[in-house]
Write a structure and sequence with these properties.
Bound molecules: adenosine-5'-diphosphate, the ligand N[C@@H](CCC(=O)OP(=O)(O)O)C(=O)O
Pathway: Amino-acid biosynthesis; L-proline biosynthesis; L-glutamate 5-semialdehyde from L-glutamate: step 1/2
GO biological process, one term: L-proline biosynthetic process
Domain PUA: 283-366
Binding site for ATP: 16, 175-176, 217-223
CATH topology of the largest domain: Carbamate kinase
Number of strands: 13
Strand content: 15-25%
Order of helices and strands: EHHEHHEHHEHEEHHEHEHEHEEEHHE
Distance between the termini: 22 Å
Helix content: 25-40%
Number of helices: 14
Strand order of the largest sheet: 3-4-2-1-5-7-8-6
CATH superfamily of the largest domain: Acetylglutamate kinase-like
CATH class of the largest domain: Alpha Beta
EC number: 2.7.2.11
Shape: globular
Length: 374
């Protein structure tokens, strides 16, 4: 079970900054407010963390640019506001990060992108590549195309699903309060901060209220829900004061800032449950003894070179069972190539993929992050 003292050993972070923090009560994006976070994120990168930023603020900035005082009710007007405001948002981040020698990348996602297996893997590979390149991905919901059914609805949920996607070690939700209180501190002056709690504590449903600012969308309800979603990949969450001095460094050093929401199980157990529970097995790969050994003893990814046979009908992103030569299931995971492709590349090293297929999507057949041993 994670505790504050383990946070200094976490590497991959998703940091979410809410609208309530980025704008001064509806006056549009406040660039000067961005600077401290950009400086802190830059410092975390230098300290060895990989950081993915999820930033709200597009609607608030769009409203300010259009001179609208109230958040529009009609979806098309909200979408227009987001499209207008997103320009200012990414420009502000790009300028600020570039001044500190870091590149940024805009990533806009809809719920559908993460529900579809192949798109899920594509989004995951892109984000992993960006992190490897040392770039800071700046993610927001793709509000322009997201219809009601397709929406994440709030960026707390989006940030949690991104944490699942890249198997983040920590999710940090920066907001305008000091953390999660036992009651809404805007309405109750005597509300007390909760320093740490388990995400499955049923009391949390009672304490978390909605948003009253009219700029943000979710309030604490969506933050608690997000922490529960993040816990599905074993990721702990810290709800923290975005305006606090040096807040990311202090969290990173294990200080008791904000509220730590502890998941009920570790990453490997969480991944196992997710793979076992949600997805149907579409095919079967028979592995040679060397591959079985590498998976079991070294926890490596599965490479095509160790695959002897392939059966079933599966597409990229679907679940396949990995069996040994006696037919006993050893592992299960999300496969990076479809059945026809696997039939051609099995037994070959990844360096041959380009010659055989004409392209190389991924070096691994199943990446170890998407593989559970049975
Ligand atoms: N138990 C609680 N503890 C802290 N804040 C709460 C609580 N219940 C409701 N809130 C409200 O949640 C708001 C933060 O959510 P929101 O406005 O959606 O911000 P953000 O833009 O950061 O997502 C706070 O300003 C506060 O009024
Ligand atoms: N995509 C929207 C996100 C709105 C939203 O969730 O805001 P918040 O509750 O402040 O995180 C935007 O950029 O305005």
């Amino acid at each position: 079970m994670i505790s504050r003292s383990m946070i200094p050993f976490t590497r991959r972070w998703v940091v979410k900054i809410g609208s309530a923090l980025l704008t001064r009560d509806g006056a549009g994006l406040e660039r000067s407010m961005l600077v401290p976070w950009v400086e802190q994120i830059t410092a975390r990168r230098m300290a060895g963390n990989e950081v993915v930023l999820v930033s709200s603020g597009a609607v608030a900035e769009g409203m300010a640019r259009m001179g609208w005082r109230a958040r529009p009710k009609a979806l098309h007007a909200l979408q227009a506001a987001a499209a207008i405001g997103q320009m200012g948002l990414v420009r502000a981040y790009e300028d600020c990060f570039q001044a500190r020698g870091l590149h940024t990348a805009q990533v806009l996602l809809t719920r559908d992108d993460l529900a579809d297996r192949a798109r899920y893997l594509n989004a995951r590979s892109t984000l992993r590549t960006l992190l490897k390149l040392g770039v800071i991905p700046v993610i927001n919901e793709n509000d322009t195309v997201a219809t009601d059914e397709l929406r994440f609805g709030d960026n707390d949920t989006l940030a949690a699903l991104v944490a699942n996607l890249i198997q983040a070690d920590l999710l940090i939700l920066l907001t305008d309060q000091d953390g999660l209180f036992d009651r809404d501190p805007r309405a109750h002056a005597d509300a007390c901060l909760i320093p740490e709690t388990r995400v499955d504590d049923p009391q949390l449903d009672r304490v978390a209220g909605g948003s009253v600012t009219g700029l943000g969308t979710g309030g604490m309800v969506t933050k608690v829900r997000a922490a529960r979603l993040a816990a599905r990949s074993g990721t702990p969450t810290v709800i923290a004061p975005g305006r606090g001095e040096d807040v990311l460094r202090r969290i990173g050093e294990g200080e008791g800032v904000g509220t730590l929401l502890v998941p009920f199980q570790g990453p490997q157990a969480a991944r196992k449950q997710w793979l076992a529970g949600h997805l149907q097995v579409r095919g079967r790969l028979t592995l040679d003894a060397g591959a079985v050994n590498a998976l079991r003893e070294k926890g490596t990814s599965l490479l095509a070179v160790g695959v002897k046979e392939v059966q079933g009908a599966f597409n990229r992103g679907e679940v396949v069972a990995c069996v040994d030569v006696s037919g006993r299931e050893v592992a299960r995971g999300l496969v990076n190539y479809d059945v026809q492709e696997v039939a051609r590349i099995k037994g070959h090293p990844s360096s041959r993929f380009e010659a055989i297929l004409g392209y190389l999507d991924e070096e691994e057949l199943i990446h170890r992050d998407n593989l559970v041993l049975l």
